[in-house]
Specification:
It is built from 19 helices and five strands. The strands form two sheets. The protein has a three-stranded mixed sheet, covered by helices on one side. A two-stranded antiparallel sheet has the order 1-5. β3 and β4 form a beta hairpin. The longest helix has 26 residues. The protein is globular and about 65 Å long. The two termini are 16 Å apart.
Length: 390
């Protein structure tokens, strides 16, 4: 466990260096590198980023002898490299965007290909036809479905509470006992997110500027709360406290090797709970994935191709069947340097977890969830070590 303690203290030290650099007082800057820590970690005293880099490289050299398992070694290699890439950007060393995505998020995706996007659109078309939304162009029929299923703004929080309660019941019945846990929905406006899991206060902040269908709220209930971020963080907090997980598991580290699995676990919550109910939910999943993939493409267009938001928004809005105002608001955080590659964590994490989940037999689910929630992972370690021994 010493490696985990050293990594956690180093990461906290880098976070302190990052926070001590003058920035705006905006929401994303206040989050820092570590937005959530579920155990106390004493930051390593670091003079500057050069010292941080040297300490990370020294830690890397210890892995072969000290790592508790091959899974742990493989994860730490990727996590340390992602922190080295982050430190390079904090030092304002030029790092190509493709390298940032590969090293920080640990995925090779750049632009999501047209065939994948068209596959999602084909599913949306099929499900609309099944529900009787046909006869017009795809964008028109989808707009009618979304309008018919939109939750009035004054009912968003109550609907979120209702769906979160059902998600809690399903988690407690199938996965982990969570009856004592809760996260209260609270409305906010002018926020750089649709919803946010504020774990320390046990609140899920809902951006009431955004439109929500009932499916969208159902997805957020599972993503942010049960069995997503709340459950994931509670299990990591308990594991660290009981000594079954290393101290670095107590930290959520933005745009790092752990990010894709943090978001991917949350995005697969509906599947874990067997809660895909009919063509409306199947459409909702395809639409969510389409828009997530397009946000990856938007990040690539901005940071690799040098396009402006004014150039990007119309392309993403049309491709994802959104009005330009909503599309622009969902892309606002792309210009934040720390967060620039983070958008890949959502779509790539969803795909990475779902690919493995599809191979899990029903009788293996309990073992898989222990493997998934009970270890720190990247997309590569999740796939490599499931059933392969650790």
């Amino acid at each position: 466990m010493q490696l985990g303690r050293d990594l956690a203290e180093l990461t906290a030290g880098i976070d302190r260096l990052y926070r001590n650099t003058p920035r705006s007082d905006g929401f994303l800057d206040k989050e820092g590198l570590i937005p959530v820590a579920v155990a106390k970690v004493e930051p390593r005293a670091l003079r500057d980023y050069d010292e941080a880099e040297a300490a990370l490289l020294a830690l890397l050299l210890r892995l072969d002898e000290e790592a508790e398992s091959t899974l742990r070694r493989d994860y730490l290699v990727e996590m340390i490299d992602s922190l080295l890439a982050l430190v390079a950007t904090f030092k304002e060393t030029p790092v190509p965007f493709a390298e940032r995505v590969r090293r920080q998020i640990r995925v090779d995706t750049q632009l999501v290909d047209k065939a994948t996007l068209e596959g999602y659109r084909s599913t949306i078309r099929t499900k609309l036809d099944e529900m009787g939304y046909s006869g017009g162009a795809l964008a028109e029929d989808l707009a009618r479905w979304e309008a018919d299923n939109r939750v009035p703004v004054e009912k968003v929080l109550d609907t979120m509470r209702e769906l979160t309660r059902e998600a809690r019941e399903r988690v407690s019945a199938a996965m982990y006992p969570m009856q004592a846990e809760w996260m209260e929905p609270e409305g906010v406006t002018a926020a750089p997110f649709s919803a946010y899991c504020d774990y320390p206060t046990r609140k899920v902040l809902m951006n009431l500027d955004f439109p929500y269908t009932r499916f969208a709220l159902k997805h957020l209930a599972t993503h942010e709360v049960f069995p997503g971020h709340l459950v994931h963080l509670k299990l990591r907090e308990t594991g660290v406290a009981e000594g079954t997980m290393p101290l670095d598991a107590a930290q959520v580290v933005t745009s790092s090797a752990s990010s894709a699995l943090f978001e991917g676990i949350a995005d697969n919550g509906l599947f874990f709970l067997d809660w895909i109910e009919g063509p409306g939910d199947e459409l909702g999943v395809a639409l969510q994935r389409l828009r997530g993939a397009l946000r990856c493409n938007a990040a690539w267009m901005m940071h690799a191709q040098g396009k402006s938001l004014d150039e990007i928004v119309p392309v993403i809005a049309e491709g994802g069947f959104q009005d330009p105002v909503t599309a622009r608001s969902r892309l606002a955080f792309l210009s934040h340097n720390l967060r620039a590659p983070f958008v890949y964590a959502y779509w790539c994490g969803d795909v990475a977890v779902h690919e493995v989940w599809q191979s899990v037999k029903r009788e293996e689910r309990t073992a898989f969830w222990q493997y998934l929630y009970g270890n720190m992972h990247t997309p590569a370690t999740l796939k490599k070590h499931w059933r392969g021994g650790n």
